[in-house]
Write a structure and sequence with these properties.
The protein is mostly helical. The protein is built from 21 helices and no strands. The chain is globular. It starts with 6 loop residues before the first helix and ends in a 6-residue tail after the last helix.
Length: 443
Amino acid sequence: MSPFAGTVALVASCLRRDCGRLGLWAFGLVGLLALRVANVMDLYSTPASREEFARSAEGNIAAAVIGGRPVALDTIGGRVSFEVFVSFAATAALMSVLLVVRHTRAEEQAGRTELVRAGVVGRRAQPTAAVAATTVANAGIAALSAVVLVAIGLVVAVGVLAISWWLVDRRDLGGTLGGGHGDRGRARAPDALGSPVGLALRLQRAPFAGWLAGITAFAAVFGSLATEVEEAFESDPDVAERFTGTEGTPLEAFLATVAVVLALATAAYVIGNLMQLHTEETEGRAGLVLATPVSRLAWAASHVGIVAAGSAAILAVSGVAAGLIHGWRADDLSWAGELAVANLAQLPGAWVVAGLTVLLHGAAPRVASVIAWSGFGVVAVVTMLAEPLQLPGSLLSVSPFVHLPGVPAAEPTAGAPVALVTVATALAAVGLAALRRRDLAST
């Protein structure tokens, strides 16, 4: 039997199962793109305005890293590409990663891969089908952009796919890179796994490590750019004016904006890891745990507490990383503490997202994931694009982050953070109460 047998059928199955998810991704990406294009055309409607921006961005390293290579900025097309390319590509990449993981490792962990391979399906069919379905999804969202991106990165994609073939041919089903089922393990599980907190920590530690590394690396990039950004502000008052608010210097306003971006990324971590509760339920593992003397409240609260602590750790560590790099370049290491405080000032916003996710899981588990991620998209757009999109003030209140002080440009306050923590606690409490009263979710 060919190692690729059944690939076409699996591609069709992937696309059929994810048609709803792909529709939401397409709506969000294309809708946001349309809004940004309209905004750019409105702000830079004259050749003079576009030429002025091109002059200010030319040779600006920070702008190049954030917006991509500045090409033809004196045209609408070049300006739109500069504004949206990096964020659009990053979002599409996130979609691609989630799709591939959903149709490879997640299927294996759920035990469905064994059922699939019991048919006429080759070992290489599943990863190949996941990559192929993801490629089709990207092409459907933006056909021309997908063709260009695939042409640029075709060599890397083929190399990674070849590595995945090599791995699936050599490891045991259900095993990892560290070994298969045939390896000898401990004769006795660690005592910590006997408690709901220990089990939740074991399940959450790998995703937490990945998010921590990614967000910290992202923060370090911004920290390395802070000096260039400050120089750009000093050389171009027009650019500085865009970041100047009622409080703080333009650099402090920029770093406050970075803190909000990192907080939004942390909110994505919160949603993704709290959805582990739904996965544990639908795949039957929660039922096994709850068959012991462990209560639903203890089981769920363990995950919630670990994610809440993890979000605080991510913001603190990423703030220190950004501050150390900027402080080293600016010869002032006190920035490490300042940016850690700036990040933690945004933590209540991430906790509100956590509380809402717990509420959705407890009250409406079947649609919790869709509503939570859709709500996150709305919050991200409102938080980051309210001013350029000229959104009404009444809409701003839906984002918890707009109520928090923009440290270090503003002084930390207690009022709004305490209020948001109270809201987050109340949402989580209602969600946990609803979880105790409903049946466990099933596939």
